[in-house]
Amino acid sequence: MTAFWLNVVWMMAAQFYWEKDQGNLELYFTAPMHLMSILAGMAIGGLVMTSSRALAVIAIGSVLYGVSYQIEQPLLLIAVFLLTMVPLYGLGMLFASLFLLWGREAFHLAQLLQEPIYFLGGVNFPIRHLGVVSGLVVATLPLAVGLDAMRQLVFPGAASQGVLPVGTEMMILAAMGVVFLIGARLALGWLETLARREGRLTLRWQ
Amino acid sequence: MAVTDRGAPVPGITFADAWRSFHTAIRLGWAIEANWSDPFLFAVYTLAKPLAAAGILVVMFQIITGGQGTEFLQFLIVGAALWNVVFGVMGGLVQSILEDRERYRMMKYVVVTPSSLFPFLLGRSLARVGTSLVAVVLTLGVGVVFLGVRLAPDLFYLVPATILGFLAVMSLGIFMAGWCLQLRQEAWSYPEAIAGALYLVSGAIFPVDILPSFVQPIAYAFPTTWWLEASRRGLLGHGSPGDIGLLSDGTVMLWLTVSTAITMPLALVCFSWFVKRARQAGLLDMTTGS
């Protein structure tokens, strides 16, 4: 899941900022389509590309380190995975507008969204071990909720390590998906208005 | 368009030119790295990343060992703390050279000034290296304050080990910077990939003995392994668990010296060749859009 998070941070959140640096952003704004369509295309492309990396990691982990899985409900696992991707990339779209707004600090923000999020998102350990913080994390970070739910479905005996039952976490993910996508649409609209009014679209390195 | 090689040495390239280039580049590097960001955000970024990385290691350690094995925890904290320098140096040097070529597109202007690219590059990357030193102090501080890591610094051992280790890591970074100048795509990812690979083989978070037998000679060939071992002895008063910990302090320092003495000139020669090749192939003003 680290691969997907990195894809969201570098290829979604920071994407418009890089495009501005390369002089492409004004073309996006003047094209007869919504910015979300561009980001959605990038999300699907990124999802497919990143899946190959994630599958390679799973294969290497299984072969070299002997990681074993016990998947009793594969369809449910796929559903949880897809449900995780919606708010995850929705968050990336929301960040895309914020990164563009914050300009030169984009690189720092992208860095800030790595190790701290790995820590809070339970990428390297079950978030249950974070104690009371885990409740807050589950309420805000789709990566953490999705990981927690998928671990419960993939590893034997991991259900007792989950913060919440899988069903509840799926509902949280669905709600996050709606919130982040609406938030991204509103933020992009606001950003477009702001950028046109202040003439920031063509200001490179700002 | 390719930049042709100068036929003869340009007169006027003096130590003073190099020094001016170096300290101007330090100011520029710091401006890019810090001042153009919101100071509060920059401080948060500087502190949050190493603290979170240390937090990940500590929680993983607590889960795996159940809070036992404080000796190994000390090994882990020192290794994780010092590795920030490797990421900082490699990332700093490579990002500097790529940013100036790809993003700000001023590499060619640096090359045509009456100075060498080398002092400019060193100065330009120092801000990121400095930030990584903050991360080292923070991670060690977390270890001491919250995890009971007991430091027993031996400055007579630690200072030369740090100087040699820093030279070795800078040499690796300089090599990487020259190498990345040759690459057309995804050069940005190389420092992290190489530093990540070295992280695994240099005994940063687990002893070298645990590695497969065919990887161990590679581990011992890199100065980073000896630097970490010497630093642990200088900071903690004892070596790592495993075979390397059984060596005498003198032997570890000797290997650190030898490996650094080989790495440094090799890296400088390679960097010089890489820059020459980049000039001949027209890579100094190339933008890949990556």
Q: What's the main sheet of chain B like?
A: none
Low-confidence stretches of chain A: none
Count of DSSP-assigned helices of chain B: 10
- Approximately how much beta-strand content do the residues of chain B carry? under 5%
Overall, the morphology of chain B is: globular
- Mean pLDDT, all residues of chain B: 82
The count of β-strands of chain B is 0
Structural class of chain B: mainly alpha
Distance between the ends of chain B:
19 Å
Strand fraction of chain A equals under 5%
Largest two-chain interface: A-B, 21 and 22 residues
SSE sequence of chain A, one letter per element? HHHHHHHHHH
DSSP helix count of chain A?
Answer: 10
Residue share in helix of chain A: over 70%
Indicate the percent of residues in helices of chain B: over 70%
Rounded radius of gyration of chain A (Å): 18 Å
What's the total count of β strands of chain A?
Answer: 0
Radius of gyration of chain B: 20 Å
Mean pLDDT of chain A: 79
Query: What is the chains' assembly state?
Result: heterodimer
What would you note in describing this structure?
The complex is a heterodimer of chains A (206) and B (290). Helices cover 74% and strands 0% of the residues of chain A. The relative contact order of chain A is 0.16. The model of chain A has no long low-confidence stretch (mean pLDDT 79). By secondary structure, chain B is mainly alpha-helical. Helix content of chain B is 73%, strand content 0%. Chain B has 10 helices and no strands. In chain B, helix 6 runs antiparallel to helix 9. The radius of gyration of chain B is 20 Å and the shape is globular. Chain B starts with 14 loop residues before the first helix and ends in a 9-residue tail after the last helix.
